[in-house]
Amino acid sequence: MFKIKLKEIEENVVANVLANNLQYEKTIFNKLEQSNIVEFLEKSFSNNESSLEEDNPIKINKINVPTS
Q1: Long-range contacts made by residues 48-52, C-beta under 8 angstroms, separation at least 24?
Q2: Taking the model in full, what pTM does it have?
C-alpha cells in the first residue's frame, strides 16, 4: 500500500512540474508577444534568410528582454 501511495505522489509531482513549466512558457511567450519581440525576431529571421541567399554572413544581434 505504501509503494502504491508513493507512486501516486510521484505521478502528481511530475504532473504539477510539467503544468508549471507549461504555464511559465506561456507567460514568457505572452510577455515577448506583448513587447513585439516575436514580430522583431520573425523579421530578423526573414532578413537573415535573404542574406543567406546573397552569401552574406548572418548578423546576430543581442536582445535584452526585460524580466519584470
Answers
A1: none
A2: 0.40
Cell numbers that stand for 47 in this block = 532578413
Residue 64 has φ and ψ, to the nearest 5°, of -90, 120
Residue 4 · residue 30 · CB < 8 Å: no
* C-alpha distance across the termini of the chain, in Å: 46
Residue corresponding to grid cell 552574406: 56
Q: How far is CA 16 from the centre of its chain?
A: 19
Per-residue confidence band for 17, with pLDDT thresholds at 50, 70 and 90: very high
CA 40/CA 33 separation, integer angstroms: 10
Residue 33 has pLDDT above 70, yes or no: yes
**Distance in angstroms (rounded) separating the CA atoms of residues 39 and 46:** 11
pLDDT at 56: 54
